[in-house]
Amino acid sequence: MKESHIRNCSTQKVYPGGRFLRAVKYGICALAAAAVCLLTGCAKEKDPMEKIKDLEFTVLAEENIPGELKAVIEEKKGNAFKVTYQDNGFLYICIGYGEQVSGGYNIVVNALYLTDNAIYADTTLLGPDPSDTGVKKNSPSYPYIVIKTEFLDKPVVFN
What is the bridge-based pairing of β-strands 53-54 and 156-158? Predict the structure, then answer.
């Protein structure tokens, strides 16, 4: 009689789906490693120009401008200028638009806000209303604005 070479497999431990379980284990490890990398290395950077808050301010009438600042404005008003001035816990932000051909100009404060690294001031010069008959059309003007706000030790960026 011939001997058969059939092995009895009942004595060996057989794990159904062994390769599958190993692949799942490696997959879980890879996902965990990726999660650690993403959570620690890819933190969202804060935009230094992102607004923290709007600043309260007052637009000053000429009679309320400090004398020293008024002298600086008078000296610079012929050309466009941007000046900051600090006095008694307040910051004065001055923006002049230089000589204009006539009167009747207005300046609008679009925004004054604080960021992590600066104070941003945005203004717009509006031309005279053509229908306004009270405007001095033949005499030049020197429109400027003085904005008063609390003093903050940050540079001012003019937009």
Answer: unpaired
Do 158 and 107 form a contact (C-beta atoms < 8 A)? no
Nearest to 91 by CA among 123, 114, 117, 62: 114
Model confidence, pTM: 0.70
Quickly count: other Cβ atoms within 10 Å of residue 126's Cβ.
12
Pair of tokens at residue 139:
């005499």
CA–CA dist 3, 121 (Å, integer): 98
Beta strand pairing status for 119-126 and 156-158? parallel
Question: Are the C-beta atoms of 159 and 120 separated by less than 8 Å?
Answer: yes
CB atoms within 10 A of CB 113: 15
10-residue block means of pLDDT along the chain (159 residues)?
46 55 66 64 66 96 96 96 96 97 94 96 92 73 97 95
Q: What are phi and psi of 82, to 5 degrees?
A: -140, 120
- For 152, which DSSP code? -
| Residue 92: count of CB within 10 angstroms of its CB | 20
CA distance 116 to 2: 90
